[in-house]
Fold each of these.
Amino acid sequence: MTTSTLLHPPSEWSARVAVLQDGASYTYGELRTRSRLRARQLLASAGTADLDGARVGFLMAPGFEYVVTQWAIWRARGIAVPLCPDHPGRELEYVIDDADCSVLVGAGETGRRLEDPARDRGIPFRSVGGGPEGEPAPRASDALSLPRLSAERRAMILYTSGTTGRPKGVVTTHGQIEAHITSLIGAWQWERNDRILHVLPLHHTHGIVNALCCPLYAGATVEFSGSFDPVATWDRLASGEVSVFMAVPTIYAKLLHAWDEARPRRRTKWSRGAGALRLLVSGSAALPVRVFERWEEITGHRLLERYGMTEIGMGLSNPYDGERRPGSVGQPLPGVELRLVRPATARVLAEGVEAFEPDASGEIQVRGPMVFSEYWRRPQETEAAFVDGWFRTGDEAVLEDGYYRILGRRSVDILKSGGYKISAVEIEELLRSHPAVRDCAVVGLPDEDWGERVAAAVVPEPDASPPPDAIEALLEPWVRERLARYKVPRAWRCVEDLPRNAMGKVQKPAVLALFDVGAQPLRTPPG
C-alpha cells in the first residue's frame, strides 16, 4: 500500500462514515469526491496541471473542511502547511513567510484571518467550505486528471514548538508519512470499526497523523468534538460509541478534575464508559505518574504513553498488549531504530532494548523510514541534526529493564548545577505527588558560581491555596527529605497557570521569565 491509498479509499468504503462533526456525518465517498473537486479548483486557479511542491497554507477549525483541504493539496501535488487557529497574527505570518506559501486557503471566520496576510503579500486567498454547492463552479479544464503522487514527494511542513529558538519547518514526504501511519496501525491495532474522539490541534503530528490519518487509513471514523469541554468529553467517552481517545496530559488532568467535581451517579457512568474504550493514549508531554495512577483508579484503564516529536513521528510506545509502566514511554515502535548515545564521547550506550551498560542514559537518536527529510531551507541545521544517518533528538532518556524513561530535553530539562546533571522531569514528578500541587515546571536559572540553580514554578490545588509566600516554606522541607540537596529548588514561584503552547507543552523560556533572575541569592550551594 502507498500513502495514495489514504487519498483513494476503496470503493467498498464509500458509504462508511469517515467524519462526524456538529451532528453531521460525511462518508468516505463524499470525502473522496469533495477533495478531488477542490484539488482541481486549486490547480485551475493556479493555471497549472501540477502544483509541483508549491506550499499551500491553510487555516480552519478542525473538521471535515480541514480533511478535504489537506487531501486536496496532496492530490494537486502541493505541500500542505497547516496553520494554527490559536496563533496570533504575528506567528501565522512567520510560518507563511518562512514556508514561502504561494496560496492561502481558509474556511469560515477562522480562515478569514488569512485575507490580510494574503493581500499584504500579493498572494491568492481562497475561501472554501459550505458543501459542494458552495464551491466555485469547476471549469472545463478542471476535468483533467489529477497528477500522480510518489512516495518521495514532499507532502507537508509542520513547524516545531520553538522551545530552542525560532520554529523550524519540518519537511516530510508521502512515504515518510505512510511509514509513520503503518507503524502505528500495527502497534496500536487500528480497526475499521474504531471511532476516535478527536480533541487535538491539527497543526502538529499528534493530531494530524496519530489521530486523523491513522483512522482514515484504516477505514475508521473520526469524530470532531469542537472546543474541548471536560464534561462533554466525559459524556462522549461514556457513550459507548467511542473506542479510541488521544490527548495530552493536561487534558487528562482536566478530565480528572471534572470527575472529582461531578455527582456520584455521573462519576459511576463516566468511569464505566471510559473503562470500556479500546485504547487511550497520552503524549506530547510527560504524563505525570499521579495522573496515570489516578486514571487507572477511577476507570480501570491504564493509559498508553508514547514518545515522539515532529521530526520523527512516533518513536517509542508502551505496548498495546503487555505491561504499561507509569513514567515510561516503552520500547521502539515497528520500523524504528533507536539508540542512546553519550554526546561527549559518541559512545553508544544502548540500542533497541539492549543496554550495553547498566541503567544506560544518554541522548536518544533515531533512524528509520518515518524520520523527516529536512528542515525547510535550513541545510546547515539539517546537517547538524544528523550523525551518520541518525537523527539527534536532543532528548535524554534512560533504559531501565527494557523500557525507556525520558529524562528531558538536554537544552531545557537537563540542568547543570555545581557539576551535577539534574533532570527537571524528575523534580517535577516528585512535586506533582504533593497534595497541594496541581502542576509545576522546573527550570534552571543562570548562576555565576554554580552554572544553574534549580527553580520551580508551582500551580497549587484550589482547595490547598497556600499563600504565594508560603509555597517555599511548605514544599522545600518536603522535597529536601526526598531528593539530594543539589536537586532541591532554590527559587520558587506560585502561579495560577503555566505558559503552554497549543499542544499543552510547557514553554520553559516563558517559565524562566516568571523569575527575576538574580533577585534571589543561592542560599545553599548544591552538594
Amino acid sequence: MMSRYAVFALVCCLTAVCAALIWLSGWFLFFFFVFAALALVGLHDLTQNSHAVLRNYPVIGHVRFLLESIRPEIRQYLIESDRDEEPFSRDDRSIIYQRAKGVEDKVAFGTRERIYEAGYQWITHSVMPVHIEDTDFRVKVGGPQCSQPYDASIYNISAMSFGSLSSNAILALSKGAKKGGFAHDTGEGGISKYHREGGGDLIYEIGSGYFGCRDAQGRFDPEKFRTLAASPQVKMIEVKLSQGAKPGHGGVLPASKITPEIAEARGIPMDVDCVSPASHSAFSTPLEFCAFLGQLRELSEGKPIGFKLCIGHRREFMCMVKAMLETEIVPDFIVVDGKEGGTGAAPLEFANHIGMPLVEGLSFVNNTLRGAGLRDRIKIGASGKLVHAFDIARALAIGADWANSARGFMFSIGCIQSQSCHTNKCPVGVATQDPLRMRALHVPDKAERVYCFHRNTMKALGEMTGAAGLEHPIEFLPHHLMVRETDRGMVTGNEVYKYLPEGFLLRGEEDDFGYLKRWKRAKTFSFAPQDMVKGT
C-alpha cells in the first residue's frame, strides 16, 4: 500500500520541510508553494470519484493522463511498435472509454486498420441506407419447451465471477445493466449479494463447481438450485462446459483468498481450497447431459436453459446434438465462446493454443444445428473479444443471435489492462478483493458508464445496420461481409462462412467440410471416440 502513496507522502513531507526552512532562504518559499500545490492535488485525487487510478495513485497517476493528452504525437511509439505484443490495442480501448463516458468517438484522417493486409474484413453498404430510430435491439430466447422466455438485448455482459472481480465492479455492472435493460452473466462464482443489490437481469452460470447450488461434497444440489432459480432477477440458466481462454482446465481458489462474501456466494467453507474441476460430475455422457438440462428446466419452472462451450473436438458437440434429437430435450440457447476470450489468469499454452477461435466455432455450431434441423429452436450467443459494433455485426452474420462481452464492459468501468488480475493488486479496483484498492471504483459513476457504453455501442450498431440497408442487426448474413484473402484478392463472407442447407445431416447429404463424416461417428451414449484408435 505504501508504494501507491509514496509520491504523495514524499510531496507532503517536502512541503513541511520547506515550510520549516523558509526563514533560511527565499528559495524555500518558492519550493513550499510548488510542493504545497502538489499536496493539494494529491488530496483532491484521494477524494474525487471520476478516476480510479488517481484515487489509488495520487499525484503520480497524472503521468498516465499526461501521456494520453499527447497521444497523437507519440502514436508510432505507443501503438505501432508494440501492436503485436498487446492483448488489446490502445485505439480499441480509447473508443470504449469514449463511448462509456458519452464523449465524441469520431477519428480524423480515415481508417487506422491495415486494409490491404490479408484478413481485413468489412461490411458492404447500400446506396439506400435506412435510418433506425430505436436501437434497443432484442431477441426472444426460449424454445417450445420453455414457459418463461426472455426478451434479451443482443448485447450483454459476459461471464465474470464475483471473486475474480471486486464487489464494487459487480455492483457497477449490475446497476448499469438494470438501467440499460440488458443482462449480466454471473460467471461460475455464484450469485452474490452485489448482483442482487444491483438489480440487473441475471444469467445464472453453473460451472463444474456448482457454486451456489452444491452440497458439502461439491455435487449438484437440486433444491439449492431451485431456490436460486426462482428469483425473478434470474432470467436464464447457463451451464458452463468450457471457457474460451482456458478450455478443459479447472481452477483452484486458495483458502487464503476466500473472503466471507465469496464463501457466501459460492456456498463453500473458508478454510479449504475451493476447487473447480475440469469436468462436471452431474453427467458423463451426451444422454446424461441432456437429462441434466431437462432437470434444470423443470427445477427452474421453465426458464430458458442453455450451455456455453468453446468448441474442441467437433464430434463431441455433434454427440450432444444427436442426444437432443434422441431425448427430445432441446436447450433454448447455446453460447459459443471463442478461444480469444479473456480471463484473470490462464496457463500461457492454454490461452494461446487450446480451443477454437470464435468465428470458426460459431460457424460450426450454426451449421451443425442447421444440419440437424434444430437451428430454428435454439438461439446462439457469441462471446470472445466482441467490443465494437462491427464485431457484433460480424458475429450475427456468421450465425449468432446475440453477443456477450466481458472485455468491453470491464474497460467501461475503468480497467486499464494492467494484466495484474491474478495479483490482487489491480490499480483501478476492478479485479481485486483489496478493500482499499476497490474503494477507488466509484459505483454510481461507473454504473453510468456501463449503461452509456451499451447504449452508444447499440447506437453505432444501428448506424452500421442502416448503412447496410437493413432494418435490424439480426438481418446480417455472410454475404454482407467481405474478406481480403491476399493483398490483391477478396472474397464474400458466404464463401468463407457458408450456411449449409437445413437438415442436410439428417438426410445424409455429403458436404465439403467433413460435417457428415463426424456426424456418423458421433454417439449419444459416450463422448469417447468409438472408431478412432491410435495405430489403426
Amino acid sequence: MIDDETRYRAVDSRDSRFDGVFFTAVTTTGIYCRPSCPAVTPKRVNCTFYPTAAAAQGAGFRACRRCRPDSVPGSPEWNHRADLVGRAMRLIGDGVVDREGVAGLATRLGYSARQVQRQLTAELGAGPIALARAQRAQAARLLLQTTELPVTEVAFAAGFASVRQFNDTVREVYDRTPSGLRAEVRGRGARSVVPSPGSLSLRLAYRGPIDTEHLMDFLALRAVPGVEEVVPGGRGVRTYRRTLVLPHGHAIAEVDSLPVDSLPVGSLQVDPLAVTAREARPGAAGRAAGVPADRGWLDCRLRLTDLRDLTTAVHRLRALFDLDADPQTVADQLGRHPALGPVVARRPGLRSPGHVDPHELAVRAVLGQQITVAAARTLAGRLAVRYGAPLSGGTSGTAGSAAAQEERSGGLTVLFPTAEALATADPADLAMPVSRQNALRGLCAALADGTVRLDAGVDREQAAAQLLALRGIGPWTVGYLRMRALGDPDVFLPGDVGVRHGLERLGLPGDPKAAALAAAQWAPWRSYAVHQLWALLGEAG
C-alpha cells in the first residue's frame, strides 16, 4: 500500500510505473489523469487520489483528454491478489458483468451480490456496475475512433443496454458526445482503419520495460498448427497470430513484437488513439542489452465475428502477454539474489505469459506430460483438425473463395476444440498411453460439467485441489496451470527439467526439495523466476 504523499511524488515525477495503479483527480479542473500525465503538475492541495477510473468518474470527474487515463495498463494488483476483490476485478475485466450481470458475478465468486457490492465499494470506491460501465466507455471510445460503425451499433457492441445510456456515459466520462469523440480523431488527421467488417486496430498498453523477444520465442515454440503461429515482419518485428473462442463468437488476433532496432532516446511517440505524447526513455540496463525503447504499447489487430467480444478479447490478450505486470517490482525482488540477480539484469522486462483459454491450456498441459514440447504441439494440432471448428467464411461473416480465406487468415484454419468435444474423443485419435488418454478425457469431462473451474475469478487453491483430485493430474500440471491459466505470479516448478537445469547452471541445487527451499526467497514472484531459468537455457542453447 502507498500513501497519498507517495502518490503525489509519483505524479510530480510523471512516473509511468504507477499508471493504472491509481488515478489523480484535480478539484480545480474537474478532470482525472494518469500519474504520468504530461500536463503541468497540479498543487498537492487540489489533488485527490482514486484506486480506479470508475471511482473518479463516480465522484464527478471526467477523463483527461491529453493523457487518456482510461487507456492505461491495468493495476498489477489484480494479477496476484487471490481475495474476493482481486478475483472480482479479473472477472469484470473478462466482461462477466456485461454478460451475466452482478448476480452472475456474485455466483461465480460464491458470495451474495450485496457482499460483492459492499467490498468493492469499500476498497475501490466503485461497485461492479460502475467498474463495468467504465470498461464499456473505454470500449466505446475505441470503436468510435478506430471504426466507421454507426454510433448506434457502437453503443450495443460496447455493451450498453440502450443508446441513451451510451450517450449519457460518453458525455459524462469524456465531456464529449460520441460524434465529438469520433471527430476528435479525424481532426488530427488520423485514419479509421477498417479493412473488413469487425476488424479493429488498437494498442495494448503496458508498463515497461518488456522483453517481447522472449514472449515470441516462448509462444512460437508452443504454437499449435492451425490455431496459432508466429510470423516474421519488417524491422525484426514478429507477429503472434491465433484464433480465439469468445462468448459471442470467435476472432483472429494479431499482436506485434517491438522492433529490434531501438528508437532514439527521447524520441516522441504519439498515440493517435490515446491522444498522449510520451518520451521513449529506456533505462541503462535496457540500452546495454540492446532492448528496444519502451514506447508503452504493442500494436494489435482483431477481427471479430461479434463486436460485443471486444472487451473480453482485449482482456485475454493482455493476460497472455502479461501486460499488466510491474516488471520493476519483480526485478527488484529477484535481483537481490546473488546468482539470479545478474540473469534478471540481462533480461529486463521479462514477462510470465498467461493464456487466452484456460480449458485449452489444461488440455495441452496433459498432452505434454512426459513428451517433448514439439511432440505435444504436433498432437494438439492433430486434435484441433479432428475436433476443432474450422474457420469457414472468414471472421467477417462473409463468404469467399478458399484462396481469399487463406489470404485473410494465413496459417490459421481452426478453433481449438472444446472440452466437451474432447471428453468423448476416439482413443484412436489420442496417440498416447491409455493412462494419459483417461486423464485427458476425465479432465475434459470435469471442465465440461463444471466439476473443475478455471475461469478468471476462480479461487486458485480450490481449483488446484479440484485438479489434483482427478486421476492422472499431478503437481507439475497443476503448477503449470496455476502459473499460466490462472495467472498466479508466485508458482515454482521444482520438478521441471528446465528449472532444474537452469538452477544447476547458476550453481544452485537442482533437486526438487532443495530447489523449492532456495526459491522461497523469490516469493511472491516465483513464476517470473521460472521464466528467467527457462530463458537462461535458451541463451545457452
Amino acid sequence: MLKKMFFSPFGETRTPYSVVRIMIVIVVISYLLKHCKKEKRPWWKNSIVYQIYPRSFHDTNGDGTGDLKGITAKADYLYDLGVKTLWISPFFTSPMADSGYDISNFVDVDPIFGSLADLDELLKTMHSKDIKVVLDFVPNHSSDEHEWFQRSLRREEPFADYYVWADPKGFSDSGNPIPPNNWLSKFRGSAWEWREERGQFYYHQYHRKQPDLNYRNLRLQEEIKNVLKFWMDRGADGFRVDALKHLFEVEDLSLDEPVNEEAGVEDNLQYNYLKHPFTMNQPETFEVVRDWRKMMNTYSDKWFTLCRDLTPPLAPWARLLIVQVYNKDIQDVVKYYGSDTDPLADFPFNFRIIKKLHNRSDVTGTRLMKIIDEWFDNLPEGKWPNWVLGSHDHSRVASRLGADLVDALNMLTLLLPGTPVTYFGEEIGMQDTEISWEDTKDPQGRNFGPDHYRKHSRDPCRTPMQWDATANAGFSKGPSTWLPVNDNYKTLNVKAQSEARESHLKVYKTLARLRQESSFAKGKLAFPVVTDEVLAFIRYLEDEPTYLVVLNLSENDVVVDLHQHTNLELPPDASVITRSVSDKSEENSPGPKVSLSALMLVKGEGLVLQLTFAKEIE
C-alpha cells in the first residue's frame, strides 16, 4: 500500500498531490506567522507616500500624455528615491472634463493611460521592489457619461435614485426652472443643473459633468464597495479618498446655505460666498467610511487569510485608507481618524502647512511650531500624524513658499514623526509653470475667464516631470505635451541633479534613508529651539544615534547659538549629515563637526546633524 502511494509504476520516487499540498500549506503558514510576528507596525508608518499625477509623470507612446507604462518604466527611479508607497491620481475611464476626476467607468483604465494589463504589470513591478500602490478613489460623483447616470436620467430602476435629483423650486416669469436652493459649485455658479429629459435638477458639487452620487441609496453604497473590492482583487494596497466631506447632503433640499460674511467674497457665484453646513461633513459620511474600513480590514485572499485574522491591523499587507478633508476647523478633520475601538481612516491628510502658509514671508519658526503643535495636540489617542507640503491642487513648494526652502521643508516633513506625502517633482524642487489662457485645461480656472484664470487654475503645478535636458524634458518623445513643460527644464531636472555633487534630489535620498533609522522611525521628539528665524528639533532613542535638525526659516543668513536658546543639555559640537544645496561653505559640508554655539546658516537652510551623545532628553 505504501509502495503504491509513494512510488510511481515507472520506479521514480513520487510524492502524492495531497502531501505536496500539505507541505506547501505548512511552509506558507510558517512564513506568514514568522512575518506577522516580526511586523510591529503598519507598513505605511515607515513609508513616504509619493503622489504621481499620471498624465504628467512619463509618456511612453509619444502622445504627449503620461501613462501607466511610464510609471512602470520609472520603477528603479522610485526605488532609488526611497519611496515605499505610490499614490496614483485617477487613471480610470473618463471624458476628462476634470482631468480624470469625472469617471465614466470606475473599474477600467482610460485608453490614454493604457489598459488593465498595464496596471497589472505596474502592480507586479512595484510589488517586486517592495513598493505599495495606493489608488485614487473618487466616490462623491461620477461623470454624466457614466452608464449609471444615463440610466438614472431615464428613471430606469434600480438606477433612478443613484444621483441627487430635485424638483425645481418654481419657474421664472420666462418659464425657466428655478433651482431648489442656493447651493454653489466648487467650480463657481449654481450646483444644480437642469435636465429636460427628467424634468428635474441634478446636484453637482464640482463640474456640471460630475453629478453627485446619492449615498442615501443603499444599493449605490454596495456598488461603490464593489469598486473597492475590484481594485483590491487586482492588488491595490489601499486608497486615497477624494472629496470625502461632500459625500452626503442634508435630506431637506429646500434649505439655503447662509452667506459667509467673514469671507469678504463679493462674487455671489463663488463657492466661498456661502457657508456650507448642509453640504459638508454630514454624520452619515462617517457611517459609510466606517463600513469601508470594516470591509478593508477583513478583506482577504487565499494566501493571507490566516495572518490577517491573527493580526488584522498589523499585517504588512493591511490596506491603507487615506481621506482628503479640507476643513478650517481641525476638529472636523481629525474626526475622520475615528478611534482605536472605532477606526475610520488611517489618516486624513494634514493640509495645515498648505492652508496656513501662503507665501515666503508667512514661513517662520514660530508659525511652523504652532502648526505642528496643533496637529499633535488634536491627534486622537494612538493615531499617527502625517505631513503634506503640496499636491496637484496647490502651487508647488518652490513657487509658493520659496525655492530656498525646498530642502529645509523636506527635512521637516520627512524627519518629523509621521508619514510624509510628497507630490512628484518636489524632490528636485520643480516650480510652477506659466500657462497661457489658450493652453489652460483646468475647468476650475477656465470658469473664471481669461482675466482671472491664473488665480484659480491648477495647471501650473501639473506640468510634466522634468527628467533631463532633452526635448520635452525627457517626459515625451512626441511633438508636444498635454501641458507645456517649464522653461527651466534644461537646468532643473532629474539627470542634472543625479550627476551634481550636491542637489535637492541627493538631499531627498539622504532624508529617505535616514527616516528608516530607528531614531526617526521609532524615536522621541524634542524642540530645543523655536524662534521666528530658527526651528530646531531632536530625534532620539535609547542606544541609538541622536539627530538634530536645524532650519533657518528667515530670508537672511544667520549665526545662531543653540546653547543660548535652550535648556536642553547639548554637546559643544555635532557632525553634519546633510545640508541644503544653497550652502556652499566648507564649514557646513557633510562630515566635519560644527560648533553649536556659532552655527552659520544661509537663508532658508536646513541642516541635519548627528550629536555626540544618545542620552535621554527630558
